[in-house]
Amino acid sequence: xxxxxxxxxxxxxxxxxxxxxxxxxxxxxxxxxxxxxxxxxxxxxxxxxxxxxxxxxxxxxxxxxxxxxxxxxxxxxxxxxxxxxxxxxxxxxxxxxxxxxxxx
Length: 104
Hints:
mainly alpha, disordered C terminus, about 70% helix
């Protein structure tokens, strides 16, 4: 004798769950949007979310290099490499696309 169970979800429960996930996503992304607006106000131009993320990552990498005084040398070197890569990423996210379509 097999036991089978069928689970059904009505449409309103699924809609409520989807709406809750959307609200949670908006709530979690709020600090990122606030940083993007801050960067836009400071620089005087509209900043994309990708550029704001790259700028934030460069700042975090800078603090990883400068703040810890008692880290081993290997971690300091890794933090320096992370900082250089993050700054390059932030610079490349600022460059506008060329009119030829993708070439720089």
